[in-house]
Amino acid sequence: METELSRELGIEHAIFGFTPFPAVAAAISRAGGLGVLGAVRYTDPQELARDLDLLDGLADGKPYGLDVVMPAKKVEGVTEADVEAMIPDGHRAFVQELLTRHGVPELAEGEASGWRITGWMEEVARNQLDVAFDHPIKLLANALGSPPADVIERAHAHGVLVAALAGSAEHARRHAAAGIDVVVAQGYEAGGHTGEIGSMVLVPEVVEAVAPLPVLAAGGIGSGEQAAAGLSLGAQGVWLGSLWLTTEEADLHSEALTRKLLAAGSGDTVRSRALTGKPARQLRTAWTDAWDDQAGPGTLPMPLQGLLVAEAVSRIQKYEVGELLGTPVGQIVGRMTSERSVQAVVDDLTRGFERAVTRINRIAGRSAT
Amino acid sequence: METELSRELGIEHAIFGFTPFPAVAAAISRAGGLGVLGAVRYTDPQELARDLDLLDGLADGKPYGLDVVMPAKKVEGVTEADVEAMIPDGHRAFVQELLTRHGVPELAEGEASGWRITGWMEEVARNQLDVAFDHPIKLLANALGSPPADVIERAHAHGVLVAALAGSAEHARRHAAAGIDVVVAQGYEAGGHTGEIGSMVLVPEVVEAVAPLPVLAAGGIGSGEQAAAGLSLGAQGVWLGSLWLTTEEADLHSEALTRKLLAAGSGDTVRSRALTGKPARQLRTAWTDAWDDQAGPGTLPMPLQGLLVAEAVSRIQKYEVGELLGTPVGQIVGRMTSERSVQAVVDDLTRGFERAVTRINRIAGRSAT
């Protein structure tokens, strides 16, 4: 599974694996793909430095990347306290009532919730970049719009390719104009923040919009047949996030969440504003149902919603409150039915790809060797 | 583009084209695919007989099919008047207000609206079948669930394959258990009634669920690259509906509607209950906005909504009221940018398919001849 982009990056398979776990990222790179570590949860740059050291040690010299969340719009001079003050009391009461109804215990005195608004602020992302450029990363991806021009320059000075996610051809064109090197076309099926255009339609639209820039197909890819489909649509590689969540190397918040993911079907996700205030695909739970219910107060815009629910999400995860327990994940969750090693997943992807190519050649009346 | 199913049907390319227009269906069949005429608008069996004669004459002896709407659940002993009586006055007033606000003229005295609830009732579909089996159809598709057992038997006695649309693996399994021959896996991107699972995820799920039954990939397919993707996912053919709406042979309600389709992008459709009461993808218009607006009365369940809006839709189409004018269409509408002949569309599909196969072989490191 070799494309111009995979050759440029020096990887064996054009498989890009996004994951919040350093051990998973390293295993993807060792297996011949490119592991890309998600940095959003690292509010402390030292912690990121430690995990990048770990990744580096585990990767056996194979290339890897980093994914940051750098908002396209700067929020200047606003503190977390300012944002806190904008949250209506009725919304706080709604969260309290939900947690009480489901018997979710409080965090211990002084215990911080893991996920805060700070992870979405530019200052934090910039501190992360200082750490990142001290490591031999090969790809820097941004999940929220194009990175600022100086960041792109700095990446290029370090020989690092810059990628940005796009949910529409228009977004992709904006990224290309900003000078990025790779567009990740992320379809409606994907986990996390997605637009409404399905991968089948989006990927070729983005390929045409930014040619000759390379495009990765993201959203709905969890098998070699799906990888072949993404590459047929003109992509130079596939970008997978959800599929690694249930690998043996992953360190999910709880066994209960892993079991929920393994049991879920493709129809068990929902595109909801309940987590961040922007539509993000995630497991459908009593939590998303409550926020999406017309009888409730509705969600707040980003970044208010994320700040409002941060502590609640931490409590739900820590105490493994089954009905409320969820995570961002794509429709491909239906294919995640057993815990496997990352290597086994990659082997399965490349074998399925070869099968699909053989089949498509038969359909085309060609014999391929 | 040859599969076991295309060979069984005696067609050159595994391209299945759904269309409400006999001239388009015939042109698809002449071009080497299988034209499938949508029967839902034929409330009068004589009219269907006339158009099947026409199709037959135009098809040059090539095989073609028919698509009926036969509800899975029987509505016994209920007349159109009974259903009319269930519509709340507030909803009628909402329609009136909408039409008045947009200055939509009345139909002339005695002029009937084209689309009625009757097209969705089993009795009508059964009359259509009597007509259909008098013609050399090769495929009978049902858009709403599995056809009744006696219809499947009758089709098989005539040597006709039976297909049914499915938006989930569970629906597909039910169709297979009912004894149908082909499943059309229709993803979220498609025009008309769709589920929420994107084609990239749905198609392989359905292929696995009903193997060894053949599956057609539907939803988001409008190029040869997309056809290659659908076939990579395990389908034995592709099912296209939207793409033919702007062909030269199509007889759309108005030039204004054709112009709207040619101008629309992939983000200009919406999955809305505004047309029938079930979620159906269509052009986003002031009409769908009004029904999807939380300030409005909301839509009624099928079949009430369809009956409620039938006359209004006819008036909007007849008088070409721009802001309200819409039609069921998939996200692929973004690719429909010029009026072309059906033959040109099919040529484009097969050429794009060959290009995609060459490219995927290069990515796989194979030389294909």
Describe the structure.
2 copies of one chain form a homodimer. With about 375 residues, the first copy, chain A, is of the alpha/beta class. Chain A is built from 14 helices and 11 strands. The first copy, chain A, has an 8-stranded parallel barrel, surrounded by 6 helices. In chain A, strands 7-11-10 form a 3-stranded antiparallel β-sheet, covered by helices on one side. In chain A, β5 (about 160-165), α8 and β6 (about 180-185) form a beta-alpha-beta unit. The radius of gyration of chain A is 20 Å and the shape is globular. The model of chain A has no long low-confidence stretch (mean pLDDT about 95).
Overall shape of chain A: globular
H-E order of chain A? HEHEHEHHHEHEHEEHEHEHEEHHH
- How much strand of chain A? 5-15%
Global structural class of chain A: alpha/beta
Strand order of the largest sheet of chain A: 1-2-3-4-5-6-8-9
First-last Cα distance of chain A: 15 Å
Average pLDDT score of chain A: 93
Largest sheet of chain A: 8 strands, parallel, barrel
Q: What is the radius of gyration of chain A computed over CA atoms, rounded to a whole number of angstroms?
A: 20 Å
Of all chain pairs, the largest interface belongs to: A-B, 55 and 55 residues
Q: DSSP helix count of chain A?
A: 14
Provide the low-confidence segments of chain A as ranges: none
Helical percent range of chain A? 40-55%
Q: Give the CATH topology of the domain at 1-75 and 121-244 in chain A.
A: TIM Barrel
